[in-house]
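Appendix B. One record, verbatim.
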Amino acid sequence: MTDFRFIDLIRPYRGLLAGAIIVQILFSLLGLATPWMLKIAIDKILPAADYNLFYLLCAAIAIIYAFRCIIRYISGYLGTYTIMRVLLDVRSRLFRHLQSLSLRFYDEYRTGKLISNVISDVSLLQQLVSLMISMSDQILTALTIVILLFFINVQLALIVVCVLPLHFFNFLHFKKILRRDALLIQEKMSEISANLSENINGIKVVKSFARERSACRNFFNTMRPTLDLHIQLNINSNFCWSICDVLCAMNYLLLIGAGISLVRNGGLTYGDFAAFYAYVGILLNPINALSGSAAAISQGLAGAARITRLLSVIPEIKEDPNPIHPGRLKGHITFEQVEFKYKDTPVLRNFNLDILPGEKVAFVGPSGCGKSTASNLIMRFYDVTSGRVTVDGVDVRRYSLEGYRGNIGVVLQEPFLFSGTIRDNIAYAKKDATREEVEHAARLANVEEFVSKLPRGFDTVIGENGSSLSGGQKQRLAIARAILKNPAILILDEATSALDTVSEMLVQQALDTVMQDRTTIIIAHRLSTIRNADKIVVLREGRIMQLGKHDELMAEPGIYHDLYTTQLQNNRE
C-alpha cells in the first residue's frame, strides 16, 4: 500500500524520470563495449600483431568514450533536475495540504513533527528517487550482460545465473529488517524535532524556572535511543553487504575454476574468458551497490511512508463543490440549533443566536464555556456537529473559503506577527495595499505613536513574532492589519486582556475606530470594556444562560451580575 502511494507521489514526473533513466542506460550500455574490445585485442590483435586492427580499435574506443562524455553530462543534468523537481513539488504539495487542514489537526499534531515531514522525510525521498534512477539503469544493464554471457559461453553463464537469486533473496530479507529500523529512526527523529521546537518556543519559561540543565538532560535522554537504532541499522546493513561479498567471491571462484577447465579443453579462448570475467565484474557491481544501498532504500521508503501518511489526512473543512463567491457581506450572523463537539466532549449545546448587521455582540462567561468556539465556527475554523451557522442567510459551508474569510478580520489576545518589517506585517491583510493605505491604517490604529520614534520607521524589522515590540505595540499592529483589511465582520478575541492600563487605552481607541459600521464579535475577559455592546451573550457549559445589554443584565441576579461585581471588587482592591 505504501509503495503504491510512493508511486503516486512520483507519477506526475514519470516523463522526466523515464528520460533520466534512458540517458543513464545509454551511458552504461556504451561502457559494455570495453570488455568485448579486450576480447578482440587478446584473440585477434596480440597473436597476429595486427596494428591496423589496433588503430581501428583505438578509434572505436575514442568515439565511444566521446559519446559517453556527452551523455554523462546530459545524464547528470537531467537526473539532478528531475530529483530536485520532485523534491520541490512534493514539498509544495505537502505545504498546500497543510494549509488545507483544520485547526483541529494542528491541535493534535506537534509542529516539530510537521517540520520533520516537510524537510527530513522529503530529503530521504531524494536518495530514494536517485537510487530508483540508477537501479533502473543497472537492472537493464545486468540483463544485457547476462545475454552477452550466454552468447560467450552457456556453461559459465549458467554458473553465474544460478548464484544471482541468492543475491536477490539476501536483499529482500534485509530490506524488511532495514525498513523497520529506518521507520523507527524517522519516528524518533520526528519526536526529537517536535521537542526541540517546543523547547525553543518556550525558552523564556525554561530560563525563568532555571530548568536549562533539566532541558539538556531530557534532550539527551530523548536522543540516546537513536544511537542504538542507528547502530542496529548499520550492523544489519553491513550483514547484508558481507553476505553479498561472500556470494560474489563464491561466484568468482566457481567462474575461475570452470574457466580453467574450458580454456584447457579448447572450449573457451583466452579472450573469451577475459571478456567473460570483465562482464561478470560489471554485473556484480550493481548487485553490490544494491546490497550497500539497502539501508538508504529502506530510509527512503520510511520517509515516503510518513509523507504519504500525512497526505492521506483528509481536510476536515472542505470547499463546497459549487461554492458561492460572496462580495461584500452585510454581516448578519445566525446560529441555528448549533451543536459542536470536540472529539467526544460537547462544547456548544442548543446554541441559537441572531446577530444583526453592524451590531456589537460580546460573548462572556467562565473559561471553557464556548466563547472562542463560537467565534471559530463563524470563521469556519471548525464545522458544526449539527445545526448551522449562516451569514446573510447563507450557510457558511456554502461560501468559498477564500471569499468568505476575506470578509472577516480577527484580532487575537496574543497576535502573531511575521519576522519582516512593520509595513510588511500591516500589508499582510491586503496583498495589493499601497504605501498610503498601510500608513493610513497605522494612523487609525495608533501605530504611528511608536513607529515615528523608530530609526527606520515602517521599514523596521521586528524579529520573530515581533520580539522587539511590546504587547501593546504588537496589538496595535494587529489592529492596523484588521483596519487595512476592512472586513464586514470583526472578531476581537480578548484583544485587551493582557495589556497594562496605558496600552489598553491606546488599543481601545484603535478598536473603537475599527469597530465602526461593521458587525463585531467581542470575546471579553474584562467586562468593563463591553458596557456599550448592543448584546451581551452570557455562556456557561456551552449554553446561553443570559442575553441582553449591560444595564439589563445588571438589573437582574445571575451569572453576569456576579462576574461583573466580582471583577469590580478585584479592581478596587
